[in-house]
Amino acid sequence: MHFKTLLITALAAPTVLSAVNEPCYGTGSVAGVCLATADCTAAGGSSITGACPADAAGIRCCFKTSCTNGASGNCRWTSDCSGTSVANQCPGPSGMKCCSSSATGFGGYSSPTIPAVGACQAVAVNGASAVVAAWPGRVREIGCVRACACPGTSDHCCGKAVDLMCSDAGGTPTISGREIAEWVMNNRSTLNLKYVIWGQRIWNPSVDSVMAWNSWRSMDDRGDVTQNHWDHVHVSFN
């Protein structure tokens, strides 16, 4: 697949904006969507503050735990539903649908192809292999090298970063990457980690303390699901 060039400044703390219609975690870490409170209420949802990066006025994390699709109907992103999905019952964009399953697991993907050592540096290949081994079935595809001159504007240009795609397709939202991102943080020394990004938040071992993902530094809204890292975990290595 095509991996977009992401202009990432690992140490920066830019002005942060909410990413309307993109994922968030509601009460109990259920699937939510950043949405205007009026739209959330109209769709029968509940909302909380602080779960969308720097909530703009009237924008909150909206979630709806019950909908009509069998006894276990619940609203979630379609990439995270192991059953059937029904439209027009949930708040947010078309990717939020009523799922028939109460199962809370993610993924179910075949083992992805691990990049070969070469243009993709050994540290990135080893890091990707470690994540896949620790989280079987959770990574669908791995991207490493981009067509840009090293050092360029991304660690991908030098083959020292991987994008761990963890949704059904590029540009398809999921909330599945948090556990992987926190695992990367906790295994920073073994991985020789430079920084990790998930869900519009960044963690860098040279400046940040170990903490839960929701306390990581927020990043600016870059305009879409992929650029805001809601379909993949980005990992850069030293």
From TrEMBL:
Residues 1-18 form the signal peptide. SUPFAM superfamilies: Hedgehog/DD-peptidase. Residues 118-230 form the ARB-07466-like C-terminal domain. The keyword Oxidoreductase does not apply. The keyword NADP does not apply. InterPro entries: ARB_07466-like_C, Zn_M74/Hedgehog-like. Keywords: Signal. It holds the Pfam family VldE. This is ARB-07466-like C-terminal domain-containing protein.
